[in-house]
């Protein structure tokens, strides 16, 4: 078709040009001599060259169009990302065996709906919540147990994003969770007791609840509450000789602890309380709703006194809570001035000590806006977890609180950290030292969000 069109164009151009040339020749007969055979040759050559130019233009435009198509295809491949929609399942693709197509029953496919899994875990023996090939993580054990109980299929186990898997918070190595929320697409028929039988004793699923189709356990979360449990001897004066088994925190010293903790409340710039973040990075501004130390207590089986610090905020960055606790301890012990907290919120860079990770626990996940919008519509459950509170407290006391106390008394992680604390420098750091922060021209990592 294209070749016929080109010949038509050449023919049209030839028949249009020949009369024009003849007319031009007749109008100049009185001036110009009668055309010679050579002039006819020039005319024909002109028409041939014109046809060749048209042909070249067609080829040029075809090449340009092909380049544009290839560029668009490459751009789509680069920009293509997972958008939360479930991709085609294996059963939707034509099987290799023709008999499988003939015997396939559409009713046998598993219908999955968006749900949340409410669980708790002791993170002492794990390298964090998030799945990491070659390491022992909470997600790895959870997904493997769900695969055995047919809550998910092989594809969902290998690629959890296919079933819209998302966790409310990524806890770091050694960090526990009395309450963690995972959103995922699951079938209707589930056996929680059977799943728990597949899980190790330090991971426990409390409940499964149906949620809205677009629910995301992380983005729909309004706030997170963490606790940090530590021996009260950590708040003793640095030059005071004390014993962890006999020390008791005086009331006035507890008041001093809460006075320092209150300095963190509000929207602050926490670039000094995480790693590799700049002052001008928008992500370093976080809102702290509450930060306080509760009354001390003596756990069963020991004479050592412990206390629990509770903090509630919208979200937290990597090591942020542990650095806030670390600086608080340094100030209460007399190793730094309380003014250092306000200075750390400024642009100047300071080195902030990081407290051990043992006592840190993800205590609560808050979904207040979701509950207000969907909790009273008669179709969805509220995400307040009052029915599961007794199970949460039982698991916390048996597998988390007791583990924190036993591990501290056997490893003395806090006591060893306190011995090194006086060696820490609280002077401003050199801006050229990039060991704990990322230069302006380097892209900030999103892994720092909600990663305590």
UniProtKB/TrEMBL annotation:
GO CC field: nucleus
Gene Ontology annotations of biological process type: mRNA processing; mRNA pseudouridine synthesis; tRNA pseudouridine synthesis
Compartmental location: Nucleus
Reaction(s) catalysed (UniProt annotation): uridine(38/39/40) in tRNA = pseudouridine(38/39/40) in tRNA; a uridine in mRNA = a pseudouridine in mRNA; a uridine in tRNA = a pseudouridine in tRNA
One term of GO molecular function: RNA binding
Record EC number: 5.4.99.12
Keyword tRNA processing found: yes
Residue positions binding substrate: 226
Active-site residues per Swiss-Prot or TrEMBL entry: 172
SUPFAM superfamilies, A to Z: Pseudouridine synthase (SSF55120)
One Pfam family cited in the UniProt record for this chain: PseudoU_synth_1
Biased composition (Basic and acidic residues): 426-439
Assigned keywords, A-Z: Isomerase, mRNA processing, Nucleus, tRNA processing
Domain Pseudouridine synthase I TruA alpha/beta: from-to ranges: 263-368
Class of the enzyme per the UniProt entry, highest EC level: isomerase
Segments of this protein annotated with the region Disordered: 426-452
UniProt family annotation: Belongs to the tRNA pseudouridine synthase TruA family.
Role description: Pseudouridylate synthase that catalyzes pseudouridylation of tRNAs and mRNAs. Acts on positions 27/28 in the anticodon stem and also positions 34 and 36 in the anticodon of an intron containing tRNA. Also catalyzes pseudouridylation of mRNAs: mediates pseudouridylation of mRNAs with the consensus sequence 5'-UGUAG-3'. Acts as a regulator of pre-mRNA splicing by mediating pseudouridylation of pre-mRNAs at locations associated with alternatively spliced regions. Pseudouridylation of pre-mRNAs near splice sites directly regulates mRNA splicing and mRNA 3'-end processing.
HAMAP family: TruA
Quaternary assembly: Monomer. Forms a complex with RARG and the SRA1 RNA in the nucleus.
PANTHER family: PSEUDOURIDYLATE SYNTHASE, PSEUDOURIDYLATE SYNTHASE 1 HOMOLOG
Protein name, UniProt field: Pseudouridylate synthase 1 homolog
Organism: Anopheles sinensis
